[in-house]
Amino acid sequence: MLFLQLVLFVVLLPGGGSEDDFQETITFRIILTTSFYNHSWTQNQGSAWLDELQTHGWDNKTGAFSYLQPWSKGNFSNEELMEVEKLFYTYSIRSPSIYHNHVTEWQLEYPFQVQLVLGCDSHFGEASVGFMRIAYQGSDLVSFQNTSWWPSPEGGSRAQQVCTLFNQYHVSSEIVHKLLTDSCPRFLLGLLDAGKAYLQRQVRPQAWLSTGPSPGPGRLLLVCHVSGFYPKPMGVMWMRGEQEQRGTQRGDVLPHADGTWYLRVTLDVEAKKAAGLSCRVRHRSLGGQDIILYWGHHLSVYLILLAVTVPLLLLIVLALWFKKRCSYEDIP
């Protein structure tokens, strides 16, 4: 019964989705991590993610879900969501006993972590059969395929023993199969529809150039910054004319708090060869009109601003001095 409860709450756990019109594959994942510190002390952390966007949090003390997006409930009713919360909380309290009771048999060593990942993929608006995997200490242990649990090749004898136990619950396996092939994909498509406006939005990037720390004598580290764009796929390359520069180094795409993204792309070049280089930015929101920033042009703009600003400031200072002097001369 315990494993059956695990199955029910995990598959029904609500998640978030996105429309596939702008991305070939969208992956929705539910992650539950249980940390085993000793035989009497465990801690659970749960969340749900749409690719890299977190759609749900979970309070392990009250068992309540937090809906991080306005559309995170999808098309589930409040009654369904409350039932899922109860199942999830029940599992989080009772499931650790499965591993505690088999510490010796499965050669588990405190402290350790067990992570369950369940999810669905959506390809161009069509949801695929769901998946369920369990990992031990960050390494794959077992996965559910078709109607039964299968050991991971890297799981060794421990994975074989876990499968032997889990596959004894035939009714549970049938429920897992049904929920992964029906409930999870159906719920994902409901979320994709509920979050369509948000997930299909397009936000134009802002781009600018700068220099980074000097790589060495006579060299420059050119930096192309691209910020505030959505969706995530972004093409940035340092160019000379129409030729891509092979030394281009792409950083990680980092999230902003508002759901948009930031990317930093660098190029290490000889200072004397920097002239004529440009940074090309390609993104869906630009409608085919790439942003091209030429190295040296931004410096020219700064020089122009200085050339205009400095004389203007001098004139203002001179005028104030002259006015002040005249006021003194008018005093009898």
TrEMBL record:
SUPFAM superfamilies xref list: Immunoglobulin (SSF48726), MHC antigen-recognition domain (SSF54452)
Single GO MF descriptor: lipopeptide binding
Keyword Signal part of the UniProt annotation: yes
Residues spanning the membrane: 299-322
Membrane topology (UniProt): Single-pass type I membrane protein
InterPro entries for this protein: Ig-like_dom (IPR007110), Ig-like_dom_sf (IPR036179), Ig-like_fold (IPR013783), Ig_C1-set (IPR003597), MHC_class-I_related (IPR050208), MHC_I-like_Ag-recog (IPR011161), MHC_I-like_Ag-recog_sf (IPR037055), MHC_I/II-like_Ag-recog (IPR011162)
Record Gene3D superfamilies: Immunoglobulins (2.60.40.10), MHC class I-like antigen recognition-like (3.30.500.10)
UniProt name for this protein: T-cell surface glycoprotein CD1c-like
Organism of origin: Ursus maritimus
Gene, per the UniProt record: LOC103672078
